[in-house]
């Protein structure tokens, strides 16, 4: 089975995808890493060099052209589900799981993150919470198309397995 893990930046997609893959004995793929290898630069560099439209097209190509083994857990980029037909494609090609967190929790995590996230540059505190609230409002209708949804607070591999239920 292929599992595509979706959610807003900072929700723990990569961390929990890797842990779930390890527990199940599945392959783990981080689509952001695949994209960076294909582009030969970081996502932040690609974004600033070529813009969001070019990035989203490359991201779509990476999603649909990556070779997935039968048993794989895939961590996606935070915006990937919200463009083109990506949620439909992922739902047709595996199971999707949305890791849901509140804007405040996401802001707390992102404010202390060491990862460079171009869209968050210079945003802190209330301004960051406000930004995330707006972005999440735009994106959540896509995330909610996931076949499984799990609250990201007090996350555990067991909680992920339970959310995926009958599929494991």
Automatic annotation (TrEMBL):
<feature type="binding site">
    <location>
        <position position="32"/>
    </location>
    <ligand>
        <name>substrate</name>
    </ligand>
</feature>
<keyword id="KW-0963">Cytoplasm</keyword>
<keyword id="KW-0808">Transferase</keyword>
<comment type="pathway">
    <text>Metabolic intermediate biosynthesis; chorismate biosynthesis; chorismate from D-erythrose 4-phosphate and phosphoenolpyruvate: step 5/7.</text>
</comment>
<keyword id="KW-0067">ATP-binding</keyword>
<dbReference type="InterPro" id="IPR027417">
    <property type="entry name" value="P-loop_NTPase"/>
</dbReference>
<keyword id="KW-0028">Amino-acid biosynthesis</keyword>
<keyword id="KW-0460">Magnesium</keyword>
<feature type="binding site">
    <location>
        <begin position="10"/>
        <end position="15"/>
    </location>
    <ligand>
        <name>ATP</name>
    </ligand>
</feature>
<feature type="binding site">
    <location>
        <position position="139"/>
    </location>
    <ligand>
        <name>substrate</name>
    </ligand>
</feature>
<dbReference type="Pfam" id="PF01202">
    <property type="entry name" value="SKI"/>
</dbReference>
<keyword id="KW-0057">Aromatic amino acid biosynthesis</keyword>
<feature type="binding site">
    <location>
        <position position="56"/>
    </location>
    <ligand>
        <name>substrate</name>
    </ligand>
</feature>
<feature type="binding site">
    <location>
        <position position="117"/>
    </location>
    <ligand>
        <name>ATP</name>
    </ligand>
</feature>
<dbReference type="InterPro" id="IPR000623">
    <property type="entry name" value="Shikimate_kinase/TSH1"/>
</dbReference>
<dbReference type="GO" id="GO:0016301">
    <property type="term" value="F:kinase activity"/>
</dbReference>
<keyword id="KW-0418">Kinase</keyword>
<dbReference type="InterPro" id="IPR031322">
    <property type="entry name" value="Shikimate/glucono_kinase"/>
</dbReference>
<feature type="binding site">
    <location>
        <position position="78"/>
    </location>
    <ligand>
        <name>substrate</name>
    </ligand>
</feature>
<comment type="subunit">
    <text>Monomer.</text>
</comment>
<comment type="similarity">
    <text>Belongs to the shikimate kinase family.</text>
</comment>
<feature type="binding site">
    <location>
        <position position="14"/>
    </location>
    <ligand>
        <name>Mg(2+)</name>
    </ligand>
</feature>
<keyword id="KW-0547">Nucleotide-binding</keyword>
<comment type="function">
    <text>Catalyzes the specific phosphorylation of the 3-hydroxyl group of shikimic acid using ATP as a cosubstrate.</text>
</comment>
<protein>
    <recommendedName>
        <fullName>Shikimate kinase</fullName>
        <ecNumber>2.7.1.71</ecNumber>
    </recommendedName>
</protein>
<keyword id="KW-0479">Metal-binding</keyword>
């Amino acid at each position: 089975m292929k599992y595509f893990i979706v959610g807003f930046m900072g929700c723990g997609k990569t961390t929990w995808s890797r842990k779930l893959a390890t527990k199940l004995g599945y392959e783990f793929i981080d689509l952001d890493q695949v994209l960076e290898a294909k582009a030969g630069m970081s996502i932040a560099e690609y974004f600033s060099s070529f813009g969001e439209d070019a990035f989203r097209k490359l991201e779509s190509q990476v999603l649909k052209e990556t070779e997935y083994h039968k048993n794989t857990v895939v961590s996606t980029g935070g915006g990937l589900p919200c463009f083109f037909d990506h949620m439909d494609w992922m739902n047709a090609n595996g199971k999707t799981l949305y890791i849901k967190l509140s804007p405040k929790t996401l802001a707390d995590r992102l404010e202390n993150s060491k990862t460079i996230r171009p869209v968050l540059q210079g945003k802190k505190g209330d301004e960051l919470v406000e930004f995330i609230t707006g972005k999440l409002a735009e994106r959540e209708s896509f995330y909610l198309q996931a076949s499984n949804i799990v609250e990201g607070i007090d996350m555990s591999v067991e909680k992920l397995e339970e959310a995926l239920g009958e599929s494991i």
